[in-house]
Specification:
With about 150 residues, the chain is mainly beta. The protein contains two helices and nine strands.
């Protein structure tokens, strides 16, 4: 795995629970935004052999509570408080098949760092080796124009 980020135990478990072999992932990127571009916790994980970009999104578990004990009241009793703690749980798991979902990029200029990509209905047409660039562009044009930004 390239030294961008290292998977947290929670993210690693979420991947393996969804049938992903962690050893096949070569790049991991930890983001501080959710899938909608709000502050949150998400991961991008790339498997080049399958040409798949996995996305994991986490949110705090609203039912997780921890008891904090601190301070002493005027009567000498310990003060107990229950507070919510960020205990991550998987919010979303999905993946992009980079044979159909192409040109992924994180738009961090006009938006809130959302992952955008072009979605195609078919894999890219085969371009025979040695095809002149102008001809290759004509072959690719209908495929490129039929894609939508997601």
């Amino acid at each position: 795995m390239l030294p961008l980020d290292k998977l947290s135990p929670t993210a690693e478990k979420a991947l393996t629970d969804n049938g992903v072999k962690v050893d096949d992932i070569i790049i991991v990127l930890h983001l501080d935004l959710d899938f909608e571009g709000n502050f949150g916790d998400s991961w991008l994980c790339f498997n080049p052999e399958k040409k798949v970009l996995y996305r994991l999104g986490f949110e705090p578990d609203p039912n997780a509570e921890v008891e904090l004990v601190g301070g002493v009241s005027a009567g000498g009793k310990k003060i107990k408080h229950k507070v919510s703690k960020f205990v991550p749980k998987v919010l979303k798991f999905d993946y992009l098949d980079l044979n159909l979902d192409t040109d992924p990029y994180v738009d961090n200029f006009a938006t809130s760092n959302r992952l955008l990509f072009m979605r195609h209905t078919t894999p890219a047409p085969e371009i025979p080796e040695g095809t002149p660039p102008e001809e290759a562009e004509k072959i690719m044009e209908p495929w490129t124009k039929s894609a939508v930004t997601v």
